[in-house]
Specification:
This protein has 581 residues and is of the alpha/beta class. It is 46% helix and 13% strand. Helix 3 crosses helix 4 and helix 4 packs antiparallel against helix 5. It is globular and about 75 Å long. The two termini are 40 Å apart. Magnesium ion binds at residues 402, 430, 451, 453-454. Phosphoenolpyruvate (PEP) binds at residues 303, 305, 344, 430, 451-454, 501-502.
């Protein structure tokens, strides 16, 4: 029995035999064309049209984020600029497969160079190219295996098209070598409710050799057919488990199913077993997901990422465009709290009209409140639109500034919000300095919300966009937890709200620990609400604090998670699961 650790998504547990996904095929060879340029071009374009049609057909069989991702990929296959570069390459005597590969690599490299949101989409482009090359070379379309029985899918990483169309009656769980908590695979797995542990590191999916497409020498950690237990709550994959471990996992699976029936229903408010209210809110990037968030039990919105609306805009959005979007969202949440974050431009979310494109290190540059101060007209327009939308609806609007460093920036934001008649103005705690100075920051504004994605990135000096650094971007790290504890304690002293709106809040056991550290509300991707609600309902504040203390005393993320989970498991064994009220 061997145990691997990674980033768990949700709190499910599954067991079953492994089926490995073949690693991506090596790049096509750059042999001269066999056919005339026009025929090679025809071959390439026919393949791309086929790929686009296939992606559209797959999109029609799904919905939500998965559908949007697949349709975006279908558009990439039809892109006229890519097609024109392919034509130039075939005219120069390249074969169809190489021309497709080279053209998509060219555009993929520019997206990586553009950084942030664009760089994350480069993987989608690469996947379109791999599909088209397989088509040209008469190879099967890359994708999930089909062993003919339910299985645990093990892959180096998964393309969105693969994840979106997994047959959920066959796939028991997903394990990937790469990919972090904010990757497409994580987002889709969360939305689809698939048990997943990502970023486990080297699991034996080494480059192809003739004998075994997976192994190029060395012993892989796992082979097809080997039984594993995938425990998302613990973030572990156990290979060759003992009979006792299998029985315990099966019991845990059953208990989770029971609990969901009993206490996790979306009609219940978020609260601890002792009755302490912990509002559970939604993270949204546009008003489009608002109705679904309500249906999934969101009590309000804890983070409305307004910059997601304008990622492709060349100029600042008009007050009317903004007013319409904000009014749509606020109308769905009448009478409820909605925290709108003003534009967080820069780094992973670059906005052409606000960010310079020559910063050597955008994550440490003109980002968040810094960029807004440099473009105060943009901030003023946004606050005006938010204020008018609040007046036109009956939602309880709170506004929040991103990437704040200290009290002076908090005071600047609070003062400007007051000018626009916005009574509730707060800031995000994403920079370690702001956590260390939380009490003075809170003295200048009405609330704080901890952004654990950036707080982990800046505390651990690990770029949140680099899948290869996923093992470091772990909000369970005690260094991150200690900073959150400082913010929680400051909030308690001054009697102001300390929310958490990073991905950490979507991890059910970490959610309990965050409450133990002093979080007063949690905001997350709506599909995570039910699991978090059910988990919170099992523990009292004292038990959450005990789990938090155990995690704070650990010296690594893995140890912190194990220590907190041990305390929580012992607590629930002592009192039994308490259904949510
Ligand atoms: C965060 O950093 O945790 C956060 C919620 O903000 P974003 O992910 O949008 O940067
Ligand atoms: Mg952030």
């Amino acid at each position: 029995m061997t145990t691997f650790s990674g980033v768990g998504i949700g709190r499910g547990i599954a067991q079953g035999p492994v089926a490995r996904m073949a690693p991506p095929a090596p790049p096509p060879s750059r042999l001269a064309a066999h056919l005339a340029p026009a025929e090679e071009l025809e071959l390439a374009l026919t393949a791309l049209t086929g790929v686009s049609a296939d992606l559209i057909a797959r999109a029609e069989r799904t919905d939500g984020t998965a559908q949007a991702v697949l349709l975006a990929q279908a558009e990439m296959a039809e892109d006229p600029e890519v097609r024109s570069l392919i034509e130039q390459l075939t005219d120069q005597g390249c074969n169809a497969a190489w021309a497709v590969y080279a053209a998509f690599s060219h555009f993929g490299d520019s997206m990586i160079a553009a950084g942030g949101f664009h760089a994350e989409r480069a993987a989608d482009l690469k996947d379109v190219a791999a599909r088209a090359v397989a088509h040209i070379e008469g190879q099967p379309t890359p994708g999930a295996p089909d062993p003919g029985h339910p299985y645990v899918l093990v892959a180096r990483d998964l393309a969105p098209a693969d994840t979106a169309l997994l047959d959920l009656s066959q796939v028991l769980a997903i394990v990937t070598e790469e990919g972090g908590p904010t990757s497409h695979t994580a987002i889709l797995a969360r939305e689809m409710g698939i048990v997943a542990v990502l970023g486990v590191g080297d699991f034996g999916l080494t480059p192809a050799s003739a004998a075994d497409p997976f192994d190029a020498g060395g012993t892989p950690a796992v082979r097809d057919g080997q039984v594993v237990i995938v425990d998302a709550a613990a973030g572990t994959v156990v290979v060759d488990p003992t009979a006792e471990a299998l029985a315990a996992a099966a019991a845990q699976q059953e208990a989770l199913a029971e609990e969901e029936k009993a206490g996790g229903g979306s009609r219940n408010w978020g609260r601890l077993a002792d009755g302490t209210r912990i509002p559970l809110l939604a993270n949204l990037g546009s008003s489009a997901g608002a109705d679904e968030a309500r249906a999934l039990g969101a009590e309000g919105v804890g983070l409305f990422r307004t910059e997601f609306l304008f990622l492709d805009a060349a100029v600042a959005p008009s007050i009317d465009t903004q007013w319409q979007e904000y009014t749509r969202l606020l109308s769905v949440f009448s009478g409820r709290k909605v925290v709108a974050r003003v534009l967080d431009a820069g780094a992973d979310k670059p906005l052409a009209f606000m960010n310079p494109d020559d910063e050597p290190n955008p994550a440490l540059g003109l980002r968040g409140i810094r960029a807004l101060r440099a473009h105060e007209d943009v901030l003023r327009t946004q606050l005006q639109a938010l204020s008018e939308a609040a007046d036109a609806t009956s939602a309880d609007l709170w506004v929040m500034a991103p990437m704040v460093t200290d009290a002076a920036e908090a005071a600047y934001f609070k003062a400007i919000c007051t000018e626009y008649g916005l009574p509730r103005a707060g800031v995000m705690i994403e920079i370690p300095a702001a956590a260390l100075l939380a009490e003075s920051v809170l003295a200048e504004c009405d609330f704080v919300s901890v952004g654990t994605n950036d707080l982990a990135q800046y505390t651990l000096a690990a770029d949140r966009l680099l899948g290869t650094k996923a093992y470091l971007q772990d909000p369970w790290h005690p260094a991150v937890l200690r900073l959150i504890a400082l913010a929680g304690a400051a909030g308690l002293r001054v009697g102001k709200d300390v929310g958490v709106c990073g991905e950490a809040a979507a991890d059910p056991r970490l959610a309990v620990v965050l409450v133990g550290l002093g979080a007063t509300s949690l905001s997350m991707a709506p599909p995570a609400l039910q699991d978090v609600r059910a988990e919170l309902s099992k523990y009292s504040r004292e038990q959450a604090k005990a789990a938090a203390d155990a995690a704070l005393a650990a010296s690594s993320a893995v140890a912190a998670r194990a220590a907190a989970c041990a305390v929580l498991t012992a607590s629930s064994a002592a009192v039994g699961a308490v259904p949510a009220r």
